[in-house]
Amino acid sequence: MLKKLLSGCVCAVLSAVMLTSCGRKAGDVASIKKHGNLVVYTSPDFPPYEFIGEEGKAIGCEIAILEKVASKLGVKLEVKPAQFDSIIMAIASGKADLGASGFTITDERKQQVDFTVPFDRSYQYLILREEDNYKYLEDLAGKAIGGQVGNTGMLLVEDAINKGELKDTKAELKQFKTASDAVLELKNKKLDAVVVDKLVAIELSKQNEGTKAVQLLFKTAEPEHEDFGMIVKKGNAELLQLLNATITEMKESGELEVNLLKYSEIARKLQDK
Ligand code: ARG
């Protein structure tokens, strides 16, 4: 019985894996059409870009872009939740057709995957307890700083601790599975600040009473913007082109902006329930 059950499990796991590997070339448009599904990996903890909606499914303004791409291809969009810091490798090794997770376009990441044109621009923000007034990176000297593992914001803080503004200040970086997990620790006073992208910081601070979001500033430099793109396996030019065309269309028509607001509102209503 146990054996039967086990082999059943193995089969289920195998068929899930095979869906995107066996006989299916990840990110290849002909293959996507043939199999009737566009498979995306996402870390749905990043409102308004991607988060879990009322029906337990991932929704958000990035998912809305992909619904449109899938309908152009005449296929079904299949959204698979994954841990944020595993997605780039998964896409580079062909486990899904693409990754959509508020990815900041960076030169390092460009060595592993290809990026679409940007669909939004962001800045790093701080989530703080209401009574605190840090705003410069330098204000975080000696403090406990947290965020989601693998995020660009974490790399920024890590750099500052290793060789920059926070060096030798006893500032400490703590990385969590999601930014929300970090915010809980902030509320429990185990952290002094959470670093995360602008709109997400605004959403999470609205969802968590006693916290606020402010832009992260630097005493000696202007804050740098980050552009968000989706990712495909290197060389998947046809899919990339279709994604780019759809993003550009939705940007130019204003639909993208409307969706950002729409999904911010949906995320807030979910929280009020
Ligand atoms: N923009 C940041 C980065 O690329 C954070 C993205 C986090 N995304 C998510 N869905 N949790 O590292």
The whole-number mean of residue pLDDT values reads 93
Strand content: 15-25%
Write the CATH fold name of the largest domain. D-Maltodextrin-Binding Protein, domain 2
Please work out how many helical segments DSSP would assign: 10
The CATH architecture of the largest domain can be named as 3-Layer(aba) Sandwich
Number of strands: 14
Low-confidence stretches: 1-21
Secondary-structure element sequence? HHEEEEHEHEHEEEEHEHEHEEHH
The fourth-level CATH homologous superfamily of the largest domain is Periplasmic binding protein-like II
The secondary-structure class comes to alpha/beta
Helicity, as a percent range: 40-55%
Cofactors, ions, other ligands: arginine
* Gyration radius, in Å: 20 Å
Oligomeric status of the shown chains? single chain
Count of structural domains: 2
CATH class of the largest domain: Alpha Beta
Distance between the termini: 44 Å
Shape: globular
Largest sheet: 6 strands, mixed
Describe this structure in words.
The protein has two domains: 2-121 and 227-272, 3-Layer(aba) Sandwich (D-Maltodextrin-Binding Protein, domain 2), CATH 3.40.190; 124-215, 3-Layer(aba) Sandwich (D-Maltodextrin-Binding Protein, domain 2). Helix content is 42%, strand content 24%. It is built from ten helices and 14 strands. It has helices at residues 2-20, 29-35, 61-73, 87-92, 107-110, 152-163, 179-187, 198-207, 237-252, 255-272, and strands at residues 37-42, 45-46, 50-52, 58-59, 76-81, 98-104, 113-115, 120-122, 124-129, 144-148, 172-176, 193-197, 211-215, 226-233. Strands 1, 5, 6, 7, 8 and 14 form a six-stranded mixed β-sheet that branches. Residues 1-21 have low confidence and may be disordered. The structure holds arginine. Arginine binds at residues 43, 45-46, 50, 84, 101-104, 148, 151-152, 197, 226.
